[in-house]
Design brief:
With about 375 residues, this protein is α/β, with parallel strands linked by helices. About 35% of the residues lie in helices and about 25% in strands. It has a 7-stranded mixed sheet. The protein has a 6-stranded mixed sheet with strand order 7-2-1-11-18-17. Strand 13 and strand 14 form a beta hairpin.
């Protein structure tokens, strides 16, 4: 049995590993000339770590050092809006890890035979019979997996009438700074903007900035430094430590819900199926879950029945998490002074159970 995977990011490579471990012939078509990612960290939450455990790779991340979940949300002057009980979160849900995305890509690539990896192949069309037309010719397989991101060629080929990516109104900058004292992981909200920082096991700090902006707008590092110069510590120091050549900016999109993730012998996975806002940090985590579940059910039940089971189990869950992610992040991007005043007054008073309803379904997944 052969599977062709369109896209060599985290979801696509994890899918390749899962099928390879089950004895399938694997082919990964990636448009870029090499398999890598640059410039950003990644929070591996408990559900994603369990998915990596299913691939036999979880302990490799644990060996690199574990991380704490986000301690909460603060305001620009340092006051707490939401304060999480970090020890309780780890006790109830499991461990967190923070890694460089490129390191996770390398870990997945190392688990695959070199012959499976085909970089430099731009996919142009995917057909429901398992044919993939790309810049290197054509490939045929028993199963095709579209793991080619928010602008998925697989999705356009087989769901031509489905709505495309929608800009959510804010853009994001991501970067990693050299080791600097940064304390615990925190996200800070302002007026239509926020700053998050997550210490990494090696002392470096992964930072992200999100701000309301017109689509395809651009702000350089000097502009970001000025914007956050008067926010609470350690934000100004983190901004000062950043280098222009390490900052990547991307507009944030989500994809409207599909009625199914499968068509013929093809399945969508990760962002191609359910691109979501980054507010819960679950985009890559859900792609890892997708990969493990897809390989397990297709290998057990065969392609038609396995794809039906994959869609039945994964679509409701991922679409629910995508909706919650949009809802959770919305208050950070309010700009109306009365609404912001209401937010800042009400959030500290909300019961702990209110926030748990947003995160518990994501963290408690098991294969």
């Amino acid at each position: 049995m052969k599977v062709t995977i369109v896209g060599g990011g985290i979801g696509g490579l994890a899918t390749a590993v899962a099928f390879h471990q089950r004895g399938w012939e694997v082919e990964v078509l990636e448009r870029a000339p090499e398999f890598t990612e640059i410039g950003a960290g990644l929070s591996i939450q408990p559900n994603a770590l369990r998915a990596l455990d299913a691939l036999g790779l979880g302990d490799r991340l644990r060996d690199g050092g574990l991380a704490d979940p986000v301690a909460g949300v603060r305001l620009a002057d340092g006051r707490w809006l939401v304060r999480n009980d970090v020890a309780d979160l780890k006790r109830r849900f499991g461990q967190w890890a923070t890694v460089h995305r490129a390191d996770l890509i390398d870990l997945l690539v190392e688990a695959l035979p070199e012959r499976a990896l085909r970089p430099g192949n731009d996919v142009r069309e995917v057909r429901p019979d398992g044919t993939v037309v790309h810049s290197g010719g054509e490939s045929t397989a028993d199963l095709v997996v579209g793991a080619d991101g928010v602008h998925s060629a697989t999705r356009r080929s087989l769901w031509p009438g489905a709505p495309g990516p929608r800009y959510v109104g804010y853009t994001t900058w991501r970067f990693i700074v050299p080791p600097i004292p940064a304390g615990e992981s925190v996200e800070t909200w302002g007026r239509g903007e926020r700053f998050g920082h997550l210490p990494m096991p090696d002392g470096r700090v992964y930072c992200y900035v999100m701000a309301n902006a017109p689509v395809r707008s651009s702000t350089g590092l000097d502009g970001l430094r000025e914007r956050f110069a008067r926010w609470h510590d350690p934000i100004p120091a983190l901004m000062s430590a950043a280098r222009e050549d390490t900052v990547s900016q991307h507009d944030v999109h989500h994809l409207p819900e599909l009625p199914t993730y499968v068509s013929g012998s093809v399945a969508l996975l990760g962002d191609a199926a359910h691109a979501m806002t980054p507010n819960l940090g679950q985009g890559a985590c859900q792609a890892l879950e997708d990969a493990v579940v897809l390989a397990a059910v297709v290998d057990k039940l065969g392609v038609p029945a396995g794809l039906e089971e994959y869609d039945r189990s994964r679509r409701p869950r991922t679409q629910m998490i995508a909706r919650r992610s949009r809802q959770v992040g919305a208050p950070a991007h309010w700009t109306s002074p009365p609404m912001i005043a209401l937010r800042d007054a009400m959030l500290p008073r909300l019961p702990k159970a209110f926030f748990e309803r947003s995160i518990t379904p994501a963290y408690t997944w098991t294969i």
